[in-house]
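To assess whether the prediction recovers the assembly geometry, we first specified each molecular entity separately, as shown.
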Amino acid sequence: MTDNAAHAATHDEEVLGKAYDARLMRRLLTYLRPYRPQVALAVAAIIGHSILELAPPYLTKVVIDRYIPAGDLSGLGFIAVLFFVALTVSFALEYVQTWTMQMTGQRIMFDLRMQIYTHLQRLDLRFHDRHPVGRMMTRVTTDVDVLNELFTSGVVSVFGDLFTLVGIMAVLVWMDWRLALMAFSVLPLIVLITQWFRRNVRDSYRAVRTWLARINAFLQERITGNATVQLFRREERDRVAFDTINAGHRDANVQSIFYYAVFYPAVEVVGALAAALLLWIGGGWVIEDALTLGSLVAFLQYSQRFFRPISDMSEKFNVLQGAMASSERIFALLDTPVEIANSRTAARDDMARPAFGPVAQTTAGVIRFEHVTFAYVQGEPVLRDVSFEIQPGQRVAIVGATGSGKTTIVNLLLRFYDVQEGRITIDGADIRSMRLDELRGRFGLVLQDVHLSSGTLASNVRLGRESIDDAAVRRAVEAVRADLFIDRLPRGLDTRLAERGATLSVGQKQLVSFARALAFDRPVLILDEATSSVDTDTEMLIRDALTTLMRGRTTLAIAHRLSTIQDMDRILVMHKGHLRESGSHQELLAGRGIYHRLYELQFKARGTTALAPAAS
Amino acid sequence: MSPLRRLLGYMARYRRSFLLGFVCIVLSTGIALAGPWVLKYAIDDLTAGVTMGKVRMYALGLFALTIVGAIFRFLMRRIIIGASRDIEFDLRHDFFTALQRLDLAYFQRNRTGDLMSRATSDLNAVRMMVGPAVMYTATTVLGFIVAVGLMLSIDGRLTLLTLVPLPFVSIIVRYFGSAIHRRFEAIQEQLSEISAQTQETLSAVRVIRAYGQEQYAIERFRLANEEYVRRNKGLIRLQGAYYPSMGLLMGFAAMLVLWLGSREVVAGRMTLGELVAFNAYLMLLSWPMIAFGWVTNLLQRGMASWKRMLEVMDAVPAVADRVLDDVDCGDGVVVGADLKVRPYSAIEFRNLTFAYGDHVVLRDVSAVFPAGTTTAIVGATGSGKSTLLGLLPRLHEPPRGTVFIDGVDVLDMPLETLRGAIGFVPQEPFLFSASIAENVAFGARGAQGDRDRVEEAAGLARLDKDLSDFPKGYDTLVGERGITLSGGQKQRTAIARALAIDPRILVMDDALSSVDTYTEEEILSRLAAVMRERTTILVSHRVSTVRGADQILVLDDGRIVERGTHDALVRHNGLYADLYRKQLLEEELEAS
Ligand SMILES: Nc1ncnc2c1ncn2[C@@H]1O[C@H](COP(=O)(O)OP(=O)(O)OP(=O)(O)O)[C@@H](O)[C@H]1O
Ligand SMILES: Nc1ncnc2c1ncn2[C@@H]1O[C@H](COP(=O)(O)OP(=O)(O)OP(=O)(O)O)[C@@H](O)[C@H]1O
Ligand SMILES: [Mg+2]
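The predicted structure of the complete assembly is given in tokenized form:
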């Protein structure tokens, strides 16, 4: 699984820092802390394993130097038994190592994934606005899997490799230190080659990742926007654009092949150089009887094994590099502070309750905006000094030109964003001092951008709230007249929807999301263009249903069709981020301001024809 | 053609590379195996006692051989892996092209995440198969044959003994291979569940916050995550045993060689040099044996992934250009009338019945939209308005003989021509994460993409006023899907985008639903001149928007139940008149 994960090509972002960063590494290692015993066991197993790996060449030496010249057959048998024992124990140790380490890796990944996902569920919308979903998915899946590789094959087996190296060096020195020095004399060469390799591979790795990120971003957007691409005949141009990135990716890869293709053979050549040196000098010593033949053979065998861990470790370098990049991205995400959270005082009130508790039943309360100023982007205020008050049970509408900040008011009330100046209070308490679930638990919301998920129609209405039983779902659906179309579906409320509810008409989607707001039965209902795509008949039926359903509750409705808000208690008129007028329909008309002009316009539209027919 | 043959077709394009690569493999393998041979002579001579000079010659020979071998090894990797990257490029290109051809319904049936994973991780598995797996298979097989041959020439009996573990190896590979494969698939499946959940909860983040569903989402994720760990556990149990067991078997062989071989040496039937060389070959052999398991794994995964890719690449698009294949006019020649160069076109629906699967949405719809006129469609939610509009640019495929433009069946028109004639504003606009100017110029060709043309289109859609409030104006970047724009701004960007291609037919599907009345009025009056020169179809729920149309169609449950001008329909006293009265009533209520 791990090798696939490393290649799973879903990287969208290029935070690539240093190849090795002690700070990151230390932080990564803290994830191992809960699993200390397992890690210790794995390290012990791998050390044992690498020591046992040293046995065969030495046994060979003993055979050649002692038992063959002596013709000692039972000695040979004894060596064979030793060999067998070493093999079996080494197998067992390797199994133990793989099992404990991989399982530990899995648990760590589980912890990490939960941590990231939970954090994503808490992060501000301001953050989500700027970070594409695809990229965040990569954090939860691919990036975590890359780290998994570090834990399972990296950290521990580097110990193994190191021990093999040190072990071989010790054995060589012990057998014959002069010859050992001879073998080590090529090490500087290895260091040089490895340095060269690392430096270049790091750069090309970076290039490959960048290209891959572009490929993925491009693909994802073209798949989700396929209809638009086809309608506007972008295929040809997209193909050309795609080929450019695709070729960039290929060339970056070909570049990195070069470094690998040089590196492995180069290490082999250095190994052969060591062997040749050993033969050259050691052979001479054997002739002079300064060295036994068995030692020479053992040396040759060890020198072969000596270079394997070195090229292994260079391979691990890739894992390490990937892990550094991934962890940097993951930690950057985890370190992004959550600005909109339960305030400290609210949290202290009831420490016992979980961060996202079940919703306490609350009442509407008096909602007040006090001199609220807000900007999505610093320096470009979208709301300026907005103040108003909504009494419990009042029905208030917001009207205004497109882009005047109506949706933004809702966003602030639900604390999707925090105000920059002024404050919003409910029953006198600043909403920033309230628990989030208590605040949001008051509102049933129909968003302007309808969002349905794949899943059944019923599950789209009740979401995760089991207490909304089938009957309640049914009631909500009937209140918005969605039963009319749902009952005609063969599976009714159990119909499964496509991604984003794509197989429903737009109006139908809106009705389902409306039903959801009613099913949650909250004291305040917020409707942001809730029926903009619904036909007039249905709209009027819903309005009738609402007058009974919402009796005594607060309603805040945003609408462009003045007709839909006529009987509201109060109407707020937004203009370029300012609250310009406020009052009942009659009062506003009498005021002869913006509302009056808007109204005139809609009224007048009946008399004139907006569409001048073609002269035919 | 079988999937394998198809893949070979891709590889055949680079056959020269593969041939060269194989030559390099043969040479480098041969040379690698010559090393121990040299060693054998060296040791034998050393036991027999030789001159210094000869030993030095052996040392030099060993070194020289490795250098030559290394050069070929370098070439081998460079050439074969390089070719695999070329093939990857071709495959990705073809996969993307195949995706582009597919129709809307296909994308609605298949999840984005699934298509993405085929384009990424499956493609990668295929590349691993045509590159590294091919290379290692060749080295493995070749190395195995030559090593065994050389070993046989040293000692036949000993060779046979070392081959004893071989059948076990193949049993192990067979058993573990398929078991690993199955578990691996199960794991991949769970991984896509994890990604899908992440994707859905993140794109629904506002809904989740508003309804306090965070804990529920987290719990659901925990379950998926736990299941993922559970499935991985099964794989780890197998894999933990798989690779070491190969090492174990090869170790047994080495033990046998050392034990029995040295008995041979003692008995004088074999020289010490031969024993050492034999041992060295065994070491060389152990790599192919261990790699064998790995390579079979790669091949299996690669084939599975290739089939998954082919499912997409072979999917037959329901909507495509009609290609004459019986008439000899070369490959891919598209038949069909080119639309004559005219400012506007007449549209006709003739006895159109349309169903999604067996859900009939349009029934026997007939209507004529004369060139240069404006037709409005009204009707209840779900009555089939969007469906009807979507059939015109063939987002879904209408039955033959039902939809015509200037008397030509749209099925006979090249999609390029057809869609180029239609400026379409979808009910739910999709914007790309690019600047507003780029979004407006999305379909523009040539001079249509010029800044003043873009600004003109934006002006018609009354986007200009909003943009003048944005510090970066036209260069403001919009977020994913147009997040960071207000609802009305998104819709107006989509209108501008449709106008920018200067279409002969303008289709607006409830395109002003999120726009306030004042702005709507402004847009409609600005559009009036544009619409006079075009055939326009617009859908709306508001009488005020449609009343000026030359013709109004009332759709009810997929049927056209009324048609005529506003005045005629009001007199007719049917559904439309009813709608009119209701909206009138509302307005009068307001006025009161
Ligand atoms: N998430 C966001 N990030 C940055 N800017 C935003 C964001 N959401 C909205 N805006 C900008 O803030 C302004 C007000 O937007 P808002 O959505 O409140 O308008 P609205 O009155 O609801 O308009 P409409 O009637 O078109 O829905 C717009 O200019 C919009 O471009
Ligand atoms: N891709 C699809 N697959 C299956 N059924 C669909 C699909 N798209 C729409 N439908 C169904 O077809 C019917 C007509 O949908 P359509 O989108 O044409 O309605 P509409 O008249 O445009 O409605 P609205 O006013 O809500 O936009 C609806 O019942 C809808 O559920
Ligand atoms: Mg529609």
